[in-house]
Design a protein that fits this description.
InterPro entries: DUF4352 (IPR029051), Immunoprotect_excell_Ig-like (IPR029050). With 162 residues, the chain is an alpha+beta fold. The chain has two domains: 40 residues; 114 residues, Sandwich (Immunoglobulin-like). It has one helix and ten strands.
């Protein structure tokens, strides 16, 4: 009888130990899902996306009547994107080729040749940048930013263009 009691008690302890190991894994999974949800959050004007080597803030998006007389694409609209970029890396951070824009129909748009910022910013410093894009379809556009030399997923900003 004692033998049966010890076997039952040992079984209960083993099951309890297995249950304790499973609980943290569930918690880790939940935290991982929450982290992914935060990472994939869609941003808008005024929001900041932070990366390992950079902090990017979308300051403003506006349309402009300015046109490049030599441009042959003839977009329906030209937008001006104003941003602040802070270098968090130890080395200089290049900028000016790190934005991708999709118009209201989901088409990838090309940079438009106006007064666009391009260069490098020193470690620990900030730059106020400007980039222009030709837009074929207005509506809600997406602006994707990721540092030029990075394996990070891009931050996605959604902006209504009228």
């Amino acid at each position: 009888m004692k033998k049966l009691f010890y076997i039952g008690a040992l079984s209960t302890l083993l099951l309890a130990a297995c249950g304790e190991e499973a609980a943290p894994k569930e918690k880790d999974t939940t935290q991982s899902v929450q982290a992914e949800a935060e990472k994939s959050k869609t941003l808008t004007v005024g929001d900041t996306a932070e990366f390992k080597d950079a902090k990017f803030t979308l300051k403003a998006v506006s349309t402009t009547d300015a046109r490049n007389e030599f441009d042959e694409t003839k977009p329906n609209q030209v937008i001006k994107i104003e941003y602040e970029l802070e270098n968090l890396a130890k080395d200089e951070l290049s900028y000016g080729m790190d934005l991708t824009v999709y118009d209201g129909a989901g088409n990838k748009m090309e940079s438009y040749a106006l007064d666009n910022s391009m260069g490098a910013v020193a470690s620990g410093k900030k730059v106020q940048g400007v980039q222009h894009f030709g837009i074929m379809e207005g509506g809600k556009i997406e602006i994707h930013y990721a540092p030029i030399i990075s394996f990070d997923d891009a931050a996605v900003f959604e902006v209504e263009v009228k």
